[in-house]
């Protein structure tokens, strides 16, 4: 018996939105990608490429593009939102009049709203209270997926139908979709790892060795899970693809925009110039500020976040911050095994 494919809408014309829309269309789902820029929509309709954010990749011939929000989301069973965190709430508010009660909304955005410390699923819950919600996160560098290199992702939702529908829409021989119910943990993992990608990029620019890189990555995992537990997430989620998986990918790859920002900072470039040159989203800089504020408020020990904050916003030399971290006394290796006194 054939099961009908979900109709899909993807909000966001960036590299990740494009890759996910393309996967759904390639899987036989009627898919519309919404972009705010009508000129780019016309170009994409004509060329079936996204030359601004995903140059060099042909998109599936059935993938439709639109700058009309009502038309894009109105008929969809499943709506993916891939809008940077700074504009996420606004776009959801704009889409709200056209959303139907049974639709499934899935955030793909790895960021934290400035000022409110809201994650994107919380924004969806506030703005569309009756929606069926999920979060998609994992080691998903857009260009690798566009090149059909095998990858896995995580759909986190309490709704089993939603998890199955996302699997049906996206899973294919080069893309596996794993399931989780810890929405908050999966989402926090995706947001927090961007901070540590900046730290590793900075360290790589300073030509550190593999021991240093491994220490940084492992202590990053300790720090992010310590913070997440304080906020009610399950620390075991950090052992999954959305946690250690994405941390490893983003901290290792020059394809990561956050890693690129860190590398450029570590090479002595100015933050404003780096952001201007990037022309794409790097959520980590905002996330450092939001997490630093929240960690101070909650009294959570986050030396890497504090160190990055000092380097980026208080102009402290990288070498001084690194030396301070190395001299900060004995701590537990795995604090869920040996708690810190
Ligand atoms: N790229 C990746 O590898 C991955 C990214 N993500 C996450 O997905 C999210 C989106 O990232 P990505 O696709 O890479 O983003 P990009 O930086 O590639 O593109 C950003 C997109 O958002 C659009 N946008 C920005 N502001 C608005 C607004 N106010 N209204 C409507 N559209 C807007 C931009 O449109 P315009 O061109 O008109 O400015 C552009 O289409 C981020 O949170 C990122 O962390 C998650 C996994 C992988
Ligand atoms: O989240 C990503 C890969 O999983 C993409 O990371 P960047 O946003 O740093 O490019």
Automatic annotation (TrEMBL):
It is an enzyme of class 1 (oxidoreductase). Substrate binds at residues 110, 257-258. Coiled coil: none annotated. NAD(+) binds at residues 12-17, 142, 257. One of its GO terms (biological process) is carbohydrate metabolic process. Its main location: cytoplasm. Transmembrane segments: none annotated. Keywords: Cytoplasm, Lipid biosynthesis, Lipid metabolism, NAD, NADP, Nucleotide-binding, Oxidoreductase, Phospholipid biosynthesis, Phospholipid metabolism. Residues 182-320 form the Glycerol-3-phosphate dehydrogenase NAD-dependent C-terminal domain. It catalyses: sn-glycerol 3-phosphate + NAD(+) = dihydroxyacetone phosphate + NADH + H(+); sn-glycerol 3-phosphate + NADP(+) = dihydroxyacetone phosphate + NADPH + H(+). NADPH binds at residues 15-16, 36, 53, 110, 142, 257, 283. Sn-glycerol 3-phosphate binds at residues 110, 138, 193, 246, 256-258. It is found in: Cytoplasm. Pathway: Membrane lipid metabolism; glycerophospholipid metabolism. Residues 8-160 form the Glycerol-3-phosphate dehydrogenase NAD-dependent N-terminal domain. It holds the Pfam family NAD_Gly3P_dh_N. It comes from the Bacteria. The active site is at 193 (proton acceptor). GO terms for cellular component: cytosol. GO terms for molecular function: glycerol-3-phosphate dehydrogenase (NAD+) activity; glycerol-3-phosphate dehydrogenase (NADP+) activity; NAD binding. Its EC number is 1.1.1.94. Belongs to the NAD-dependent glycerol-3-phosphate dehydrogenase family. Catalyzes the reduction of the glycolytic intermediate dihydroxyacetone phosphate (DHAP) to sn-glycerol 3-phosphate (G3P), the key precursor for phospholipid synthesis. This is Glycerol-3-phosphate dehydrogenase [NAD(P)+]. It comes from Agitococcus lubricus. The gene is gpsA.
